[in-house]
Amino acid sequence: MSSNNIEHELGALKEAVAMALDYARELGTSDAEVAISKQQGLSVSTRLKEVETVEFNKDGALGITLYRDGRKGSSSTSDLSPEAIRQAVQAANDIARYTGEDSFSGLSDKELMATEFPDLDLYHPQDLLPETLAELAIATEDAAMSADSRITNSDGASANAHTGIKVYGNSHGFLNGYASSRYSLSCVVIGEDEQGNMQRDYDYTVSRKYGELAPAAEIGAKAAMKTVGRLGGRKIATTKLPVLLSPEISTGMMGHLISAISGSSLYRKSSFLQDSLGTQLFPEWFNIAEQPHLLAGLSSAPYDSEGVATKDRDIISAGMLETYLLTSYSARKLGMVNTGHAGGIYNWTVGDSGQTFDELVKAMGTGLIVTEVMGQGVNMVTGDYSRGAAGFYVENGEILFPVEEITMAGNLKDMFRNIQAVASDRDYRSAIRTGGILLDEMKIAGN
């Protein structure tokens, strides 16, 4: 969509939001908020270098929430005609008359609303035909299948292009919107050794800009290399070992931190980090910074889904927890200040300890590289952690063989506290930007 068209579309959606807020005001409600999103996308998947599916989607909806004397009512409509919007507002108002009172609900405080809206370089439209994405996916599969004779099958490749617009407004007078784009390419292949044992693995790339996706040949070759590397996996004896988490698994570990310090977990008392604000959770050298305004960042945003301004902040500083992640509701429940995290986090960057991943492998000496975890064995109330795992056994700083069908166990508090190092070569493909994390010791259950 061209810049002129996107401005026209943004203007039309803002008008729809403003209309809904006007209708809500006419009904005499105390507060109202309206969010609208429109997305369109094209996805092409292939298998064995043949097109398997082509999907085009275009959808959107307006959602309105009204607050009336501590009661809340919500409604939505995909029809943006004035009459449909009026009916949606009336429905939300009717619902609010019968819901239970909740003194903690309501809009975020007016003084927290964003007043500056920098261009974060999130929207990069690219006119793409299904044939173009099909060629890209097929090229990725072709690179993977031809990389090694042990790659015998494919679980497919997928190329995707999506754009969207979000507009939010509320009765504080806030009304703003922006457009964004996202492109991705992935491939999954299957390898087989001489004994007939099979493994699979994948690789992917994602970016706001189509032209900045990693080349198809690179993604295919990496998928093949990772798959072949897992062939010949074996168990090891039950023991305790240092563990080096790959960047992808390190991202998951930090995801548990997000869950534990989110307001909803805290006010429900379902977090192992209850009452941990200002306490030492990590080594003194460990830091996590949040940067919501990174240009073209995958998780950049000028404000959260309640209109609250986002800002740079330290999540972990010198190993100490500096903030919880709070929405308006959870902040009121906890008697704290809203941190602008309605809708998630924004570009966390985990500080590193100066070594590359390969250097950490050598520094670890004898231990495990974990590249995959399985199962749901994480208790967010106690922090107990027990998950199936696969990866590679390392001795004297050298990878000896792949490992599978093991379980690694510990407690997340101990895992956080006993991080030994974080690799400097980060994975930038998600909201959590981190390198591999070296843990001093985990319980390993094997043979």
From TrEMBL:
Residues 32-96 form the Metalloprotease TldD/E N-terminal domain. It holds the Pfam family PmbA_TldD_1st. Residues 239-446 form the Metalloprotease TldD/E C-terminal domain. Its EC number is 3.4.24.-. One of its GO terms (molecular function) is metallopeptidase activity. Residues 123-231 form the Metalloprotease TldD/E central domain. Transmembrane segments: none annotated. Keywords: Hydrolase, Metalloprotease, Protease. Belongs to the peptidase U62 family. PANTHER family: METALLOPROTEASE PMBA. This is Metalloprotease PmbA. It comes from Shewanella corallii. The lineage of its organism: Bacteria, Pseudomonadati, Pseudomonadota, Gammaproteobacteria, Alteromonadales. The gene is pmbA.
